[in-house]
Amino acid sequence: MATFSKVGTATAPSNESAQRVKTYQSDMGVSQAYQVRLEVRGDKQLLATGGRIFPIIASLPERYNIEFSSSWSSPFAKSDMSSLAGAIGGSKYGAMAAAIANGALNVAGISTRLKSQSVQVWDSTSSMSFSIQMIFNALSNSATDVRDKHRALLKLCAPSENAVGVLTQPGPTIASATSAALGFSGDSRKISLYIGRYIVLDNVIITGVSSDVSTLCDINGIPINMTINLQVQSFFSCFTSEDIDKMFNVL
């Protein structure tokens, strides 16, 4: 069983498959079942060690939030007899006659719309979204236990810049997702979120990092405690039933 000396300490395991089946435990005796863990692969801009994989580990908060929704619309709800007649018959005279009939019925207080016209049609499904806290405390070294984790999490939400000012987006890219789908790992960029032994999202983006910083500092002025609120979403904005099954398939 692999044991990390500090909560959130960055490491570089030798292979990815072994990493997924390891059991993580902190100095405070918090097992994997009560941890939130972020793993970053393939982006050396984000890794201080230059390693291919590193976990940022923190104890799970008492509660966390999951949001998921579907979007539906009623494309036929505003159609009336005249528009339906024109669409079906294609005759302007038929549509004109239907419009006259509509007017007469409306005057009489009779609706020209049917309940069946209000049927809703599925448009899309949202990404799977998480709002979760990561709490860091300095066990022996504020720089490695708090500051470095703060910096790493902020970087997961920020683009990278090369020597001539060209920006590279944070998190996974279309190219990395395509190469992964074709079975090429290479330096494909990927961020994974593990919540205990309950949930795993193998490809996410970080959309928000909110830092609640303690004013209690060590001798070097580095905070000894910090609570970071993360907003995390699945990389694919349309989350399917198959993706939900995978989300609960934690090794």
Summarize the structure.
With 251 residues, this protein is of the alpha+beta class. The chain has helices spanning 16-21, 81-89, 92-107, 142-155, 174-181, 241-247, and strands spanning 35-41, 53-59, 65-67, 70-73, 121-125, 129-137, 160-161, 167-168, 190-195, 199-201, 204-213, 225-234.
Structural account:
The chain is α+β, with helices and mostly antiparallel strands. It folds into 2 domains: 16-69 and 128-155 and 172-247, no CATH class; 75-119, no CATH class. The chain has 6 helices and 12 strands. The protein has helices at residues 16-21, 81-89, 92-107, 142-155, 174-181, 241-247; strands at 35-41, 53-59, 65-67, 70-73, 121-125, 129-137, 160-161, 167-168, 190-195, 199-201, 204-213, 225-234. The strands form 4 sheets. A 4-stranded antiparallel sheet has the order 2-1-9-10, with no helix packed on it. A 4-stranded antiparallel sheet has the order 3-6-12-11. It has a two-stranded antiparallel ribbon with strand order 4-5. A hairpin with a 3-residue loop joins strand 9 (190-195) and strand 10 (199-201). Helix 2 runs antiparallel to helix 3. The radius of gyration is 26 Å and the shape is elongated. The relative contact order is 0.17. Mean pLDDT is 74; it is low at 1-22 and 48-52.
Keywords:
2 domains; 251 residues; 4-stranded antiparallel β-sheet; alpha+beta; disordered N terminus; 24% helix
Count of distinct structural domains: 2
DSSP strand content: 25-35%
How many H/I helices? 6
Low-confidence stretches: 1-22, 48-52
Count of extended strands: 12
Query: In terms of quaternary structure, what is this?
Result: single chain
The succession of helices and strands, N to C, reads HEEEEHHEEHEEHEEEEH
Give the mean pLDDT: 74
